Each structure stands twice: as C-alpha cells, then as structure tokens.
Amino acid sequence: CTVYDIADDASGGLFIAMAFYEGHTLQTWLKGGPLPVADAVAVAMQVASGLESAHQAGVVHRDIKPSNVMWTARGEAKILDFGIAQLGADPLRGAHAGTPHYMSPEQVRGEALDHGTDLWSLGVVLYQMLAGTIPFAGADTGEALHAILHVQPQPIAERRRGIPPPGAEGRPRAAG
C-alpha cells in the first residue's frame, strides 16, 4: 500500500501513515474456498510486484499472509501491515516475528532474513489460494513450525483437479 509518512509521535513511538483502501482482505475472499486459477495468479503477480518495490527499497515485510493482502474495489492487490517489516539487516535475528503457518524456514530457525522470506510466504499464500488450505498444517504452532522444516507439502494437483502442471503455460505445443 502507499505509505505517506513514517515518523515519531508525541510520546516517542513510531507511526506509519498509509492510504485507505476500500475492498476486502484475501483472507475474507478465501472463506469461499479456493480461487479460480486466473484470479490466484493475478493476485500473486500483483503481490509479487508490490514486494519487488519494497525489496528494491531494502524493506522485507516478514508477514505476508492472506489477512495482509487487500483486494481493492478497483481489483488491485495491496500489501498491508508493515508493522514488523525490517529495513536492512534483521534487527530481530533469533526472534520469531511473523505468522507461524506462513513463515519461511529461515524465520523458523531465527536466521537473518532477506527478500526470499517474503517470496516463500507468497508461495504459501499462492498454494492456499489454489488448494484451499495451507501447505504446512499443525494442530499448534510447534507442529506447524516443524512441518515447515521437515514436511514436503502435498502437491496442489492432488488436492484440486484442473491445476495445470508446473511450466505448462510456457511449453511449446507438439507439431502434428
């Protein structure tokens, strides 16, 4: 989303002044089940574009998830809540900042983070948009974090019919 200002308030705390958008979060949209493939790809591409801008500015969001993606009335995906974002070197190395089911392995291990952590989380969100469920489940936070590090997610095509295989869009058609 558009950030207008980041400054100190009168009590010495920081605030971020951002644009207001009408629409609904991706989390709300997902309550209706998996998205059509074209919609999921459109959302993912727009979020990836927004992340590219943030990353070029040296910002890592660290909490990409459906409730932090707004789908505006104009049909645009906007990334929300930069409250735990980092600028430059990870100031919270060793701390688990983020939402467990969407954390990258580096976040789970408490390692220094870069833009790759946001791309991992976007991949989790894309999986959820297509499959209707998150790839790394767990009854509690510990199980979810263990799954991220040690469990291979079920292929989306096994969870939902009609998902094209990886790279299918770019394959040349056989002559004949």
* First and last CA, distance: 48 Å
Structural class: alpha+beta
Helix proportion: 25-40%
Strand content: 5-15%
Largest sheet, strands/sense/barrel: 3 strands, antiparallel
Task: Note down, in words, how this protein is organized.
The chain is of the alpha+beta class. Helix content is 35%, strand content 14%. It has helices at residues 26-30, 37-56, 105-109, 115-131, 141-150, 156-159, and strands at residues 3-8, 14-18, 23-25, 59-60, 69-72, 77-79, 86-87. The strands form 3 sheets. A 3-stranded antiparallel sheet has the order 3-5-6. Strands 1-2 form a two-stranded antiparallel sheet. β1 (3-8) and β2 form a beta hairpin. α2 (37-56) packs antiparallel against α4. Residues 171-176 have low confidence and may be disordered.
Comma- or semicolon-separated keywords:
176 residues, 3-stranded antiparallel β-sheet, two-stranded antiparallel sheet
Structure in a nutshell:
The chain has 176 residues and is of the alpha+beta class. Helix content is 35%, strand content 14%.
Question: Topology of this structure?
Answer:
Elements: E1 3-8, E2 14-18, E3 23-25, H1 26-30, H2 37-56, E4 59-60, E5 69-72, E6 77-79, E7 86-87, H3 105-109, H4 115-131, H5 141-150, H6 156-159
Antiparallel strand pairs: 1-2, 3-5, 4-7, 5-6
